[in-house]
Structures are given as structure tokens and as C-alpha cells.
Amino acid sequence: MQDAAAFRAEARAWLEANCPASMRGPMPDDEIVWGGRRASFKNPESKLWLERMAAQGWTVPTWPRAYGGGGLTAAEARILDEEMRRLNCRSPLQSFGIWMLGPVLLEYGSEAQKEAHLPRIARGEIRWCQGYSEPEAGSDLAGLKTRAVLQGEHFLVNGHKIWTSYANLADWIFCLVRTDPTAKKHEGISFLLIDMDDPGIRTRPIQLISGASPFCETFIENVRVPQENLVGGLNNGWTIAKKLLEHERKMIASIGERQRGAERSLSEFAKTYAGTRDRRIADAVLRDRIAQQEIDQRAFQLTQRRAAEEAKGGSPGPASAMFKYYGTELNKRKFELLLQCLGTQALGWEGDGFAADELRITREWLRSKANSIEGGTSEIQLNIIAKRVLGLPD
Ligand SMILES: Cc1cc2nc3c(=O)[nH]c(=O)nc-3n(C[C@H](O)[C@H](O)[C@H](O)COP(=O)(O)OP(=O)(O)OC[C@H]3O[C@@H](n4cnc5c(N)ncnc54)[C@H](O)[C@@H]3O)c2cc1C
């Protein structure tokens, strides 16, 4: 306990001295830092904040110091998180490398792969994207067809990925490829790291109903990938793919939690937009639904924390499907309520005459619908829960 108190005091003092003033408080979407070779910093203090946090190892607090991490225990990392929330510090770096690739490289990567990639992820120097889904392989991911043929020291890779989030902005892609077309479908897959700075890789953004293009088709044509970029051995990709999905699902499950720090509570929002009577939300039915939502959010947050403590910083295993399912459905429910609070004001889409909330919430409501698709749909999570958590028969 004494150690914990000392660490809390140390973290608090460091954050107070080093977190720039403009990095305390809600983060507008266009100030989010994703890093990468072509990183852009709308606010110069974002760059300073990233550099300071990376030097401290606190962009990845629990990773070993040797790979750019802070070497903190899970308990210390939680204290750091609490102290960052207390000061309202922004996250210095959002990154698929941190959330997904890093944890599996730590578990399955060779020493050379860890040294080559982890510090660059921790410092935000390389932006990664995820090359899993294909036009004929989404829920049935093991049906993927992108081929990698070993030719001497290189793999020759050809294929077509789809829904690759931010592929047009990424530097490297972690990719599932078929290396043995004669084996059973789960057994002929490998996990490859590919530098996208190769003329054989093309991306084509996909435009959505919201007007945004958050993801792309990715075409891979005759790309030569050094054998040293194979992670975990030939045809062992499925094990790594599943483990990475557990980390991804854990991350997606907490999406509401991350957003909550950046906005007012639901009840405050409802009071602003749906009106008050005796300082309470005027509409009794809405009041009841919001109270239930806030109770469910709090219970979910505490359950996630308990599971994280039990997992001691690792992934919660197949139970991540439960968190992914519940967290994303909860987040969708939250946006339905926000929309209900706004009423006809939620019709705002663009242009003058609308408050920032009105323009933002409608788009985020649409975006939230994808949370229960990306990283595996809700139906697939229910299948995993039935089979791998509850052990029910097929
Ligand atoms: C916003 C967003 C970002 C994404 N980012 C990435 C990314 O960066 N990289 C990447 O590789 N992929 C990404 N994806 C793709 C995502 O993983 C797939 O969309 C998802 O796995 C579903 O696959 P699908 O779209 O092919 O749908 P399908 O697999 O065709 O499913 C269609 C419908 O059938 C249902 N269904 C399918 N099989 C079963 C079953 N066995 N039992 C019950 N129901 C079933 C599904 O639940 C769904 O409702 C992203 C998707 C979204 C929406």
C-alpha cells in the first residue's frame, strides 16, 4: 500500500508538471494523435505531450522498459490511469499498434521483432492497420484467400483485403495470409507484418453514409515480404489471430468508457436538451431510462476493472467476447438516448445554426452502429460465448 501511495504521488507530481494546459480536457476528433510516418499535430502541444509521455514509457505503461514501455505493474498502470483522469489528461496516442499488435508481439514475436517494432509503436513513429477481413471472409475469417508463397528469403503476397480501417493513413499492416492452401482452413494461415511503403500495395477508401471514409479496400499485388516478418512460425497464424482479436475486443468493449471522459454525463446532457423540472430531467420516462443506463454503465465499468485485475494486465481470454458484446450494445443504447434527448435538434447534419453537440451526436450515433460489427459481430460474440465460455454443445 505504501508503494502504491508513493507511486500515486510521483505520478500526480509528474503529470501536473508535464501535461500541457491544452492537453487537459476533452479532445476534439481532429486533435486525436494517431502517430505514424506522416503524423500530423493540429495542436503543437499534442506533439510535446506525446514526446514527454513516450520518454516516460507511459504511452504503454505496462510494456517492458526495454521495448519503450514504462515497466509498470497492472496496479500501477491503474493508478496512472486514475491520476490522468483526475487531471483530465488526454490520451497522448491512439494506436492499433498499442491496442492490438503490441500485446501479441510481446507474447509471440521473436526478440528481433520486438526490438524492431515495439519501441516505434510506443513512440508513435509507425501507424499500423489490420489486414484481416476479405470480401469473402468476414465472420468466416478463416476462409481468407490472400496468398503468401515462400520463395527463398521472401514471401510473395497477393490478395484483397477489405474494411481495413485507416489503411490509407497507415505505414505497416499486420496481415493474415494463406500459406498452405492444402491444409484445413484454420491450419494453413500465417501472420505477416508488411511495410505498406511498397508500390504493390494500393488502398481505396470506402465512403460511408456519414460522409466519412474511415476504412479502405487494400489490394496487395506481388509484394515481397522478408521471411523475418513472419510472426509465430509458418501456418501458426490462427492462434495469433484469435489472441489479437481478444485484445481488439477488449479495446472495443471499452469504447463507451473512453468517450465518457470526453463528454458530459448523460443526465447533464438530458437536462440541457430535454428540459428540467425541479432541477431534475423533466420527462419521467426519459429520467428512468437514463438512470438505468447510468447504472448499467457503472456496473459494466466495474466488471471490466475486476476482470482486468484478475487477468493481471493480460487479455481476459474468450470472455472478451462477453465484454465486446455488452459494451458495444450498451454504447449503441447510449447514443439512442442522446438522440432522444436532442429530439428534432438531432436532425442537424452540417452548416450553421446547429450547436456542436447536435452535429456530432447524430454522426456518432450512426458510427456506434458499427461497434457491434467491427472486431466480430454481436452474433459471432454470442456464438463464442455459447461455445467457448459456457461450453454449450454445437
Ligand atoms: C467500422 C468497421 C471497421 C472495421 N475495421 C476493420 C479492420 O481494420 N480490419 C479488418 O480486417 N476488418 C475490419 N472490419 C471488418 C469486420 O471485422 C467485419 O465487418 C466483421 O467481421 C463482419 O464480417 P462481414 O462484414 O463480412 O459480415 P458477414 O460475415 O457477411 O456477416 C453478415 C451478417 O451475418 C451474420 N452472421 C455471419 N455468420 C454468422 C454465424 N455463424 N452465426 C450467426 N450470424 C452470423 C453476421 O452477424 C452479420 O449480421 C471493420 C468493420 C467495421 C464495420
Query: How many individual domains?
Result: 3
What is the annotated CATH architecture of the largest domain? Up-down Bundle
Which cofactor or ligand species appear? flavin-adenine dinucleotide
- Within the CATH hierarchy, at the fold level, what is the topology of the largest domain? Butyryl-CoA Dehydrogenase, subunit A, domain 3
What is the molecular shape? globular
Total count of strands: 10
Helical segment count: 12
What is the succession of H and E elements? HHHHHEEEEEEEEHHHEEHHHH
Q: Any idea of the CATH class of the largest domain?
A: Mainly Alpha
- Gyration radius over CA: 22 Å
CATH superfamily of the largest domain: Butyryl-CoA Dehydrogenase, subunit A, domain 3
Low-pLDDT residue spans: none
Structural class per helix/strand content? alpha+beta
Helix-residue proportion? 40-55%
**Percent in strands:** 5-15%
Question: What is the residue-mean pLDDT, rounded to a whole number?
Answer: 92
Report how far apart the termini are: 47 Å
Lateral arrangement of strands in the main beta sheet? 1-4-5-8
**Biggest sheet overview:** 4 strands, mixed
